[in-house]
Each structure stands twice: as C-alpha cells, then as structure tokens.
Amino acid sequence: MNIVGGLQGEYQITNGYGPSAAPKLLRDHWNNYITEQDFEFMAANSLTAVRIPVGWWIAYDPTPPAPFVGGSLNALDNAFTWAVYGHHPALVAIELMNEPQAPDVKFEDLTKYYRLGYEAVRSHTPNAYVIMSNRLGQVNPQELLQFARGLSRVIIDVHYYNLYNSMFQQWNLQQNIDYIYNDRASDLSKVTPANGPLSFVESNRSMFNIEHTGEWTSALAFDGATKEDSGKFAKAQQDVYGRATFGWAYWSYRCKYDAWNLKQMIQDGLIKI
Question: Which residues form the Glycoside hydrolase family domain (predicted)?
Fold first, then answer.
C-alpha cells in the first residue's frame, strides 16, 4: 500500500488495502482497539461520557458503498451496550459535523445544513441533544448563538488547542498554562454571555447550552516537553474547561502518542478526573 500525503482515514485504509484485505483489517481493529474493558476503565475513573466518531457511510451498513467495509454499525452498537453510565438510553447527543473550516465553509451554508440536520434528529428523538460545531478559523466565536437560540436542546461545540500555531512552539510550560487561565478563559466568556441561557448542569429544562470544549488535549507544541509537563498543562485546562455547561471531551482516549492518550495519562497519574 502506497501512502500519498499522509494516512488520513478509513477511506484511504479501505481503498488502499482493497476489498480482499480491508474487511479483516477493519474488523480486527473494531474488535480489539476499544473493548468492554475500556468502558469499565472509564467508569472506574469517573469518565461519564464517550464521544465516538461516526462516518456517514454507517447509515448504509452492513453494505456501505465501496471502498468502505461493513461492520461499523455493530461496533457502535457494542459501544452503546457497554456505555450504560447511570440511566438508559445511552445516547446523550448527536454532533452534526466535526470542525467545519472557515472560510471554505460559509456561515449561511453551515446554518442551513445544521437546521436540516437538527430537524432530521428531531424526527427520531425529542430528547437527544444536537451538537453544532463552531467553525474553525478567523470567525466570530458567537456567530452560532443567535441561530441556536430558537432551537431546543442544542449545544455549541468549540475546540481549543495550544497547537498548530508557531507562537505556542516558542513558549515554555508556564506561558502555555498562563494562556489557558487568561486567554482561554476569556474565549469561554465570549460564548457564554451573562444574560445567556441556563447551564445544563443546573437545569434539564434548559433550551440551549454551550459545550465549551468539545475537544482538547494535554499535548504541548514546544520541544522537550515531558509527560509531567503535559500533566500540569492538563490540570490547567481542567480547571478552566471544568466550567463547561455541558462538559468536555479529551482527544483521544487511546493514541500511540502519550500526551494524546487519556488512558495512559490517567494510568500514569498525570490526569485525575
């Protein structure tokens, strides 16, 4: 398999390995990468929700269009069976899109899609929250607030990383931590107006909520950052993102890179929930 431009996802994997080898490869991954024991670990360590990426082709399972492989719906069903925290049903929310990019994605197009997606979800469930991701890029962080106010049980998802910008590579640990306590806290206040809706954690009757930090990690951009540095950085983010009205999600639960690996960070005692 020749990888061109970096391995980006399931399409490249299934297309590259082909219809003979790809099914076994993917099914071995689904059966072994995340198991019921992982859900037991999460529950034992006070994690209360799991954010699962789902490809559009899952709607056509077990016979999705080529080159995708059937079986992903069964893997998702297993997760629902294992994810009984508290009361059934296990489904809390559905996110319509992950990280739309500005300026390629226009605000008008995105809100049209979000309204159609919202209506589709509501045709099946009145209770599941509908998560709408803010656009990434140089945009007004409040641009979805007015649109979402007219909808029921909606959450705005924002992602904060001290990565992907050269200034973070030039900073030491303390400068990164200070940025969380100052700039990120300010960013949160912009999407949580003082006269805004009730917090999710205070009232299940709230019509509109903000998931302050749908994604974050303890990975640092500067050279020489240690796992202990990542643990201190994670603590700062927990302090700030812990104010979220709907919660936060760490990216990712498992990863070959330690600072991106929540399970490993917990096992090493560097992150405590």
Answer: 85-183
Q: Is the pLDDT higher at 62 or at 84?
A: 62
The contacts found for 108-116 with CB under 8 angstroms, 24 or more apart, are 110/135, 111/144, 111/147, 114/144, 114/147
3-state secondary structure of 46: coil
Please tell me which residue, 15 or 8, carries the higher pLDDT value. Answer: 15
Omega before residue 197 within 30° of 0, cis:
no
Question: Exposure of 199 by Cβ count < 10 A (0-12 exposed, 13-18 middle, 19+ buried)?
Answer: middle
Q: Are strands 248-250 and 129-133 parallel, antiparallel or unpaired?
A: unpaired
Contact criterion met (CB below 8 Å) for 201 and 245 = yes
- Per domain, the residue ranges of the chain are 9-85
Q: For strand 208-216 and strand 129-133, is the pairing parallel, antiparallel, or unpaired?
A: unpaired
Q: Are 176 and 209 in contact (CB under 8 A)?
A: no
pLDDT in tens, 238-262: 999 888 788 888 999 999 999 999 9
Name residues whose C-beta falls within 8 Å of residue 33's C-beta, 6 or more positions apart in sequence. Answer: 254
